[in-house]
Design a protein that fits this description.
- Helix 3 (about 80-95) crosses helix 5 and helix 5 (about 170-180) crosses helix 6.
- Helix content is about 35%, strand content about 25%.
- It has helices spanning about 30-40, 55-65, 80-95, 115-125, 170-180, 190-195, 215-230; strands at about 1-10, 25, 30, 45-50, 70-75, 100-105, 130-135, 140-145, 145-150, 160, 165, 200-205.
- It is globular.
- The structure holds cytidine-5'-triphosphate and magnesium ion (MG).
- Magnesium ion binds near residues 10 and 80.
Length: about 230
């Protein structure tokens, strides 16, 4: 069994619009609908959890009307990590996952994710944990107080995307261990998994088009991609 968790519970502070960016219109469709369209088109995914921002519940409901698939709403937390935690706890309690159930965690802020979903799902056939990534274009400097302290080789680094795939119970176990430890907040599940499991993380091919809408200008870039590519 494969379950998708679609994260749409953020505030979009850096995007800086009146409403969270997941509701921003891209060619007449809310950003969030792009991911829902991809997820509901994939046969291997049986159920979907949509993590929501409670203040905007009616906006999600309006969008969800379009879908006949099994999509459960779960209230998000104060951080992305807590939003994932809430979703995993809901799945454990309400969905009775099997021992080998896979979970795919995806940011709704990445509208063009179809190819990467396929790559990650294929990777999950052989692996317990799969993260998509792309090479870096820029050179990376390590700095402290604006003084360069190290220039690592760019070849050692990749840029990480979502969806990220995990055996459900393994990721749940890591999130339970991380819960309550307030010192570090993990910005993705791969890094939390690396910290709390003894497993390795397998990298599969990401996609440049699967970038994350973070600032307002990113929506213009997404518009451009939509007009010029088949995504
Ligand atoms: N997210 C979430 N719950 C949170 C924070 C983030 O579900 N408490 C989701 C966002 O909706 C987004 C994804 O996680 O789809 C990646 O987060 P990010 O790009 O940081 O979005 P926001 O947190 O909404 O934006 P910002 O950090 O600028 O406030
Ligand atoms: Mg955020």
């Amino acid at each position: 069994m494969m379950i998708a968790v679609l994260l749409a519970g953020g505030n979009g502070t850096r995007f800086g619009s009146g409403r969270p960016k997941q509701f921003s219109s891209l060619d007449g469709k809310a950003l969030l609908e792009y991911s829902l369209d991809v997820i509901t088109s994939i046969k291997a995914i049986e159920k979907t959890i949509l993590v929501i921002n409670k203040r905007f519940e009616s906006d999600y409901d309006r969008i969800l009307k379009k879908y006949t698939h099994e999509i459960h709403k779960v209230e998000g937390g104060d951080t992305r990590q807590l939003s994932v935690y809430n979703a995993l706890m809901f799945i454990e309690k309400e969905m009775k996952p099997l021992k080998d159930t896979d979970v795919l965690i995806h940011d709704s802020a990445r509208p063009f994710s179809k190819t990467v979903f396929e790559n990650v799902i294929n990777g999950m056939v052989f692996e317990n944990a799969v993260v998509p990534a792309i090479p870096l274009a820029d050179t990376i400097y390590k700095c402290e107080n604006n003084i360069v302290s190290d220039i690592p080789s760019r070849d050692q680094f990749v840029k990480v995307q979502t969806p990220q795939g995990f055996k459900f119970y393994k990721l749940l176990d890591c999130h339970k261990k991380a819960y309550g430890k307030k010192d570090v907040i993990y910005s993705d599940d791969g890094s939390l998994y690396l910290k709390y499991s003894n497993d390795s993380l397998k990298i599969v091919e990401g996609d440049q088009n699967n970038f994350k809408i973070t600032k307002a200008v990113d929506l213009d870039i997404a518009q451009y991609i939509l007009r010029n590519n088949q995504v």
